[in-house]
Amino acid sequence: MLDPDHFQVNEAWIAFKLNDKPIHTERDGDYDFIALQDAASGFILSTAPWPAQTAEPTQMDSRRLLKQGQAHKNQWPKTLFIPVGQPADDLSAEAERQGIKVVRIAEDQLLLLIGETRESFRKQFESGVWE
Hints:
The chain is of the alpha/beta class. It has a single domain (4-125), classed as Ribonuclease H-like superfamily/Ribonuclease H (Nucleotidyltransferase, domain 5, 2-Layer Sandwich), CATH 3.30.420. It is 30% helix and 28% strand. The chain has three helices and six strands. Strands 1, 2, 3, 4, 5 and 6 form a six-stranded mixed sheet that branches. Helix 1 crosses helix 2. The longest helix is centred in the middle third of the chain and has 15 residues, at 59-73.
């Protein structure tokens, strides 16, 4: 299992889906959310919603997510971890275009790093319908 102590700040990022089930909005329908988090600090660099009826964020959404992450330190990480089974073809391709090594890893290996973030998101957003 990966631990924050295994990394330096901005050495590795993690891209992961925040929600287990789609978040319903009255006006725009159901959405899923992705987070980009620094592996060492746990800092959330960026988040992005995408329509739940699509499998993954678009290329444009992926580019924006990564650019927002890069804006915090004005540099790219060496590695981007993405859980196995999480659709992220466009995100992977965009990261590789920026020279970032993409590593697919079992989600249970990331739980120490992302578990608290997911739990916080669940408590805040999965309890109802949003406008």
